[in-house]
Write the structure tokens for this entry.
Amino acid sequence: MRFAPHESVVFHTKARCPLMLFVEVQELPTTVASAMLQGGALATAASGETLQEASKVITEATTPDVTARKREGWEAKVARIGKASELAKGNPGWKLTSMFVKSNDDLRQEVFVMQLISFCQRIFPAEHAWLASYHIQATGPDTGLIETITSAQDLGRLKKSPGYTTLRALFESRHGPPEGAPFKAAQAHFSRSLAAYSVLMWILLLRDRHNENLMLDDDGHYFHVDFGFVLGHSTGKQIGGLVECSPFKMTAEYIDVLDGLGSETYKAFCASCVANLRAARSHGEAICTLVEVVGTNSVFPCFQVVPVAKVAPRLRERLCLDLPDAEFEAEAMRIVNSAANHKGTAYYDKAQNMQRGIAI
């Protein structure tokens, strides 16, 4: 229907300025064919006097400043914009959605990584994994749109929230005491999603995993965003030193949410990691083929830095494809155990905190 007036937010970074847009849309109980037939009438109505009058209702004077808009919760934003919008009044199909507009980023690589995540979403056992898939649309070689997940916040922002102490304390404040069913459910969500993304991080060498690229949703699910550094293309050399060299990110806070090393919850997490890696291994040839096909003569940044001729054999090794079956579980547990409290993770988080102020 239209972009919500005066609501867009620019997030400044060193190399680019991603723009977050908020869009008022109309959900219609219709088919694609009938929507095409009705499209002309809908466009005429949307461009008529109603839309022009509605635009006058929401002004800069009634819109919070940029800082407040960044901190405003999604439900509060929907309620505020819906209350002020003439398009929402008496319209049960009105809905607010949002997206990031990015430039100076080759989102075609991110689309490919999301396709691999969606593939793993299908092959990982549901009882051991949870992965978030969201839409990424590359509109050019260095521009594109990314769907936002409105029920989640990045860990960097959460850690800077007033009153934040630890991730475990955050879970308890949100979901109640550890012995309660709501906490147990959120803890299980965290464990399954952490296990899935841990294996994914190991397989695809996801890097640049600072806390602003790690998300936590309202139900306790943990997931990753921003896949600019994968398959050997790393930020490590750029900030000097052996950093972010852990198999995956497994901090003391994560372990604390899982009741500590050696707990039954932590053992279940380890079992989920092994199960997910086993599933990836069983489909390893397909994963390797996908990467080799896409990587051949590719302009993606990851393949420009590390040619596919080197990426493919290293990927096979991480998938344990040439390892005897009898040795797989021990190797999988070695990978999982080596990630816990890894110094490379701590060094990277500290470097990002010192250079960019990202919370540890």
Q: What stands out?
A: Residues 107-135+151-356 form a domain with the Phosphatidylinositol 3-kinase Catalytic Subunit; Chain A, Domain 5 fold (CATH 1.10.1070.11). The chain has a mean pLDDT of 87.
